[in-house]
Every structure is written in structure tokens, then in C-alpha cells.
Amino acid sequence: MRDIFTAELTALGEDLAAMSRLVESAISSAGRALLEGDLALAENVIADDHTIDAIERELDERCVALLAQQQPVARDLRIVVTALRISASLERMGDLARHVAAVARLRYPEKALPSDVEPLFRQMHESAARVAERVTTVLETRDVHLAEEIYRDDDLLDQLHAATFQTTLGGEAVYTPQQVVDITLLGRYYERFGDHGVSIAHRVVYLVTGDLDEHGGP
Amino acid sequence: MRDIFTAELTALGEDLAAMSRLVESAISSAGRALLEGDLALAENVIADDHTIDAIERELDERCVALLAQQQPVARDLRIVVTALRISASLERMGDLARHVAAVARLRYPEKALPSDVEPLFRQMHESAARVAERVTTVLETRDVHLAEEIYRDDDLLDQLHAATFQTTLGGEAVYTPQQVVDITLLGRYYERFGDHGVSIAHRVVYLVTGDLDEHGGP
To answer: Which residues contact A100 (CB under 8 A, 6 or more apart)?
Structure first.
């Protein structure tokens, strides 16, 4: 019985990591679609999001079945409940990648971003891609030291998000209302993406150490 | 043992309803703060959000304790897991109300919204307030017919959200970049608020009927 449960918990961890790899691929492709105005790439991200949603549903059902059949307590119970929450965050990160891709698709054949804000969003894209990569690694290895790097990239995303407002509001360039809307929404999507990465990192840290970390999570 | 568990489940339901009443009050005050440029009201919403967050944390801990101590199965298990998810949505709705209030506070003593988009946001405010009210009632009564009304108001919020884009992009009025940013973000906050209301309604419907409803939830 215990062996079966251990195997189930391992499978749960592997599925979360697999889901996270899909999110990684989604945010990376979405960012490239946005920066390069690549329609096919944007459409792939949008079409593939249902796979992430499907894994979430399946994973959630298995968590509930595990709770019912194995009646875990203590740390085992915490692992299953945490898996439920992590899958919800990953699903949301997939949605946000899809939203980024949708903006790229809507503006095609134009690029959504005026060229002078491209460097800012290239940084956001790279930070978000690193967050997603490290979330996968944290889920695979439970190496809590990586959590700090996720928090750092999230801080960077917050700063870049603030910079998007400075650009649209205080900069010298004048954008069309459509560009202001797109920059505002894209900045928000990236900022939220970072928040969910932090939330997942908090949960893994809590699982491994039993402590709330200095960032006040989970 | 069973009596204790039933009492615990009842208490859980009451706490969700109490949390929902706070969300109701938050979104209602936030909208009034926004539409009337009322600084004190905005500050109250922002200051009170931590109460919603605290209830979420406490409720989540109790759910996990219930799972560990009572080892519920079948419908009881589903109730506890659903409570975990509903509290996460309510917490997020509280955050979104706080974001609306924060825009109102930032623009004070000006009003954030240009007068010609006020009617649009008054409708969003009213729809969101109705969603929040009905979420409370659904949680209190488990009357699944109310779910339909929540879906209807969410559809309305989606339409109003689309209308905010038409206003900023296609309308005759010309707004400052700050106004475009504020309208874009506020529209997004209200739209997400509706989504969370729908998600809660789906979960209650699923709990009561065991069926996924026509909206594809939960």
C-alpha cells in the first residue's frame, strides 16, 4: 500500500514537471511570437493551451482520488494539497502565455510593440522564460536555492512592469491608443506570470523546509 | 465523530460565506470610490484586504486539518477540496477589488475615469456587485439557479470589457495615455472578477449536482 502511494506521489511530481515544461515552452514561444511578429508561433501557443488545461484537470482528479483512497496524513497530505495548488498556478501561467500570444496574433502582420519598447519587453520575456525554466527545475529537483532566483526575476519583472508605465506615460515617444492598451496588458500578463512562479516556489519551499520563507509565502 | 465533522463542514461553509460578504463589500466600496473619487473609501478597501487574506489562510489550514483528522471520502472529501478552491477565488476577488480601489486612490483628487466612460464603468460596477452578492447567496443557500444569473452578469462584464476597448480605440473622445492605461487595467480587473465569480458558481453547482454544467466548469 505504501509503495503504491509513493509511486503515485512520484507520478504526481512528474506530471507537475511535465506541465511546467509545457508552460516553459508556451511562454518562450509566446514571447518570440510577440517580439518577432510570428503568426504561426502565436497560433501554436494558443492551440496548445488546452493540453495544459487537460493535464490540470486530470492531475486534480488524481489528487482527489489519492486523498480518498490513500487517506494520507502529515507530509504526504501536504504534498497532495500542494500539488493541487501548483497545478492551478501552472494552468494560469499557461493562460497568460496564451494571452501574450493572442496579442501577437491580433496585430499580425504588424508587430504589436513599437520598436522603442521592444528592448523592455525582450527583458520581460527573458525574465519570464527564466522563471518558467526554474519552476520546472524546482519541481524536478526540489532544490529550494533556485527559489531565490525565481524571486529575483520576479522583482525584475515588477521593475520592468513599472518601466512600461513610465514609457507609456512619461516618455518622449507618443503611442497610439492601441499601442498603449497592448503595452499595458502585456506588462500586466508578464507581471502576473512572475507572481505565479513565486507562488509555486513558495509552495515547494514550504513543502521541503516546512517554513514560510522571508517572502511571506506560501 | 460524524457529528463533529458535520459541524466542521457547516463552519467551513459559513466562513466561505463570511469571506464572500467581505468581497461583496470590497467590490462595492471600490466601485463607489472609483466612480465618486472617494479617497477614504478607497483606503478602507485597501486596508481591509488583509482580513480577506487572513480568513483564506485560516480556512485553508482548517481544510488541511480536516483532511488529516477526519479522512473524508466521497462527497465530504469533495466539499473540503472545493472549499480550498473557492477560498482561493474569493481571495483573488478581494485583490481585484483592492486594485480597483488603488487606481481610485492614485488619481485622487481627480477622478480616474473621464466622464464619458463613467456610465460604462457604472454598469461594470453594478454587474460585479451583483456577481459578488449572488456568490454570497449561492454559498449560503447552495441555490444553483442563481448560478445562471452569475453567468449572465459575467457575460455582461465581458461585453462591457470589449466596449472599453471600443471606447479607447475607436471612439471619438481622445484620452490621455494615463486614462487609456487606467481604463485598460480597470476593465481587466472587472472582467477577471466576473471570471472568478463564475468559477465559484461552477464549483458549487458541481458540488450540488455532481454535474459539469453547460458552461464547461468547474
So the answer is: A27, A30, A31, A33, A34, A45, A186, A189, A190
DSSP codes of every residue in B14-35: HHHHHHHHHHHHHHHHHHHHHH
Measure in Å the smallest separation between the Cα of A188 and chain B Cα atoms. Answer: 8
Residue with the three cell numbers 502585456: A186
Return the higher-pLDDT residue of B82 and A214.
Answer: B82
Contacts of A86 (CB under 8 A, 6+ apart): A16, A139, A200, A203, A204
The H or E element that residue A113 is part of is none
Residues whose CB falls within 8 Å of the CB of residue A12, separated by 6 or more in sequence, listed in order: A59, A62, A63, A66, A79, A80, A83
CB pairs under 8 A between A and B: 59
Distance CA A84, CA B47 (A): 30
Nearest 5°: CA angle at B203, between A15 and B72? 70
**Rg of chain A (C-alpha set):** 19
Q: Which residue has the higher pLDDT, B218 or B57?
A: B57
Q: Which CATH architecture has domain B2-209?
A: Up-down Bundle (1.20)
Grid coordinates representing B142 are 447552495
Q: What is the 3-state secondary structure (H, E, C) of A113-153?
A: CCHHHHHHHHHHHHHHHHHHHHHHHHHHHCCCHHHHHHHHH
- Give residue for cell 512562479: A197
DSSP annotation of B116: G
CB contact under 8 A, A67 and B77: yes
pLDDT at A4 over 60: yes
What is the distance between the alpha carbons of residues B151 and B38, in angstroms, rounded to a whole number? 30
CA B130 to chain centre: 10
Question: What is the pLDDT, as a whole number, of residue A50?
Answer: 97
B210 by DSSP, 3-state: which?
A: coil
Look at A88 and B84 and tell me if their CB atoms are within 8 Å: no
Distance CA(A187)–CA(B34), nearest Å, equals 23
Quote the cell numbers at residue A154: 520576479
